[in-house]
Amino acid sequence: MPLGFRGEGITYTARFCGVETPFYFNIKETIKTYIVHGDFDFVVSPLMFSGHSPSKDRDPEVHNLDRRLYPYAETDINVAWAQWAKAGIVVAKICPWLDLDSEDENVRTDSEAILKQQIEWASYLSLKACLLPTPKGNSCANYARCVNQILKGPKNNMQVDSWQTWNSFRVLCDHHNLLTIALDINMNIRSCYQESPASRELTKTLVRGACRCCNIRYRCSKRHPLRPYLDQVSNVYKQRNPLSERECRELDIRDFLQLPLRPFRNFSSALSYEGQATDSLKYTEYERAICKALLDRVPNEKASFIVTVLVVVGAGRGSLVFASLKAAEITGRKLKVYAVEKNPQTVIALDEVIKANNWVDIVFIVTSDVRYWNAPERADILVSDLLGSFGDNELSPESLDGAQRFLEKDGISIPSSYTSFLQPLTASKSYQIAKARKYILHSESACVVKLYNVARLAPSQQVFTFTHPKWFDKESNERYKKLQFEIPKDTGSAMVHGFAGYFNMTLYKDVCLATEPSTKKPDLFSWFPMFFPLRMPIRVDRGSILEVHFWRCVDSRKVGFLFLFLHFMLLIWIALCNLKQVWYEWCVTSPSSSPIHNCNGRSCWMDL
Can you give the residue ranges of the PRMT5 oligomerisation domain (predicted)? Predict the structure, then answer.
């Protein structure tokens, strides 16, 4: 049964235990022994007698293999298809003696033939997976070539002794998404795995061989000889804390690439607003910041007659409005609130919230883009929640620059500043998802990701900082930063698949919110990290320097160039609208160079 099963029907992910068995012609009995009576979830079993060699069956006068019957385990006639394929109950173990890079031509050609035969047989049986043997030496080019042909051919259907061998193998196979690694826990895990880069890989399978002395003909009245091992492994999972309700909801989106919100093109959905509203930590911190701002703005002796004008930019369904009024109640200050929201659907819900709480005399709804709203009076405090996963990626700088024209000269902006952070990652699953889409548009598009199967290769570093209010109109929102990450010397080599983006935000004075891992509070979940992929992963060795260049670009001419060949009148209309676009570009220059990604915003950008 699934490891860690507690009886509530929650099995989580990848928590199943199988057993490796020797070759038996009677696979039905093998299934009965280990799965029906042994309570294992699957068996890893050879489908062909390991002593078989095609060269022994080859006619010396004929160069092609005889079409004789090879010594396979039972066919699909004797074993129902469901027993072979359903839920991955059988995993095919490919012959361990294969050496596809042998200097001996007979060994090499036999290995190629056997590999192809066994995987074709497993594919015919609709098995879910095959366990390949470890490459025999440092060279594995021919082995990788054969596997790559199988992966990319019509039959699309390894913990190795060193990460370098595994990495060379998958690079030669072009990082195919069906090729993953299995960890053999017969080995000394502490010395061979924990300190190896392989420990950062997306490991789907653990391998532990069955005892050879096990009698296949034992009776179910006896306890299965491997049951103590199964109980021990299962107990490890039972001792883990159960997933929270939020973590259970996030299971399906772990490492899944999502396009970030484009606030000036798309409106947020009701589901998005509902999820944001449940983040109590975020709004508690906003409430604390507003309390401090009100106390600084209005002294106690004037609290009874001074009314503070507060503008909420992007009011949504009223969470920030509620936090502002709660802060006014706590501090005993009088407040007048303008709730500015450009989403006409959200305004309906916002109006209902205001009426339900009898706020109609102190909260005034404004259905407008804040950049074009003519405020009837100047604001003392400007409150906004416009940050994206990378801080400025949802155009908070441009929005607040437009809003500060109606802020008092000594007015307060909440947030007052925010800084983006970047961190190199090994993220093979996210990289494979982006690569599988095949178009350059996806392989260099920044996405929002709930990072899970990743390794963070070095501490994150600051990238761009924005401060509000900004009283120097000529200060550009374009940015450039060169970062140098030192790969720790106590780890092995690794592959950099991309970069995680985070931010730290100062709401007011010492009140902060952060998604950067070293300062993030665990209860904050409003933002998932950003992921900036590399079109081709870059290998870094221990102690090496990874040099990254990052740009934030702003251009008002790009839109006109994009439509230059469409229609003259269309070009004129766009130019008159004075549309702008913002995008990021990034590249690596050490230890090896990559192309500049997203050049001129060709794959992803934000409209202003």
Answer: 417-561
431 known ligand binder: no
Q: Residue holding tokens 């190896």?
A: 196
pTM here? 0.70
Domain that holds residue 278: 270-385
CATH assignment of the domain containing 287: 3.40.50.150
Q: Is 490 exposed, middle or buried (0-12, 13-18, 19+ CB in 10 A)?
A: exposed
Alpha-carbon distance of 528 to 526, in angstroms, equals 7
* Residues 59-72 as b or e (16 or more Cβ within 10 Å = b): eeeeeebeeeebeb
Q: Examine residue 505 and state whether it is found in any structural domain, yes or no.
A: yes
Q: Are residues 570 and 428 part of one domain?
A: yes
For residues 462 and 522, the answer to whether their CB atoms sit within 8 Å is: no
Compute mean pLDDT per 10 residues along the chain, 608 residues long, and list them: 51 67 73 78 77 52 43 49 60 87 88 87 81 85 88 54 70 77 58 48 58 43 64 73 74 80 71 75 95 96 94 92 96 95 88 91 92 92 94 91 91 96 92 71 83 91 95 83 93 89 96 95 88 92 94 69 39 49 93 92 84
Q: Does 341 count as an annotated binding residue?
A: yes
286 annotated ligand-binding residue = no
439 is in an annotated binding site: no
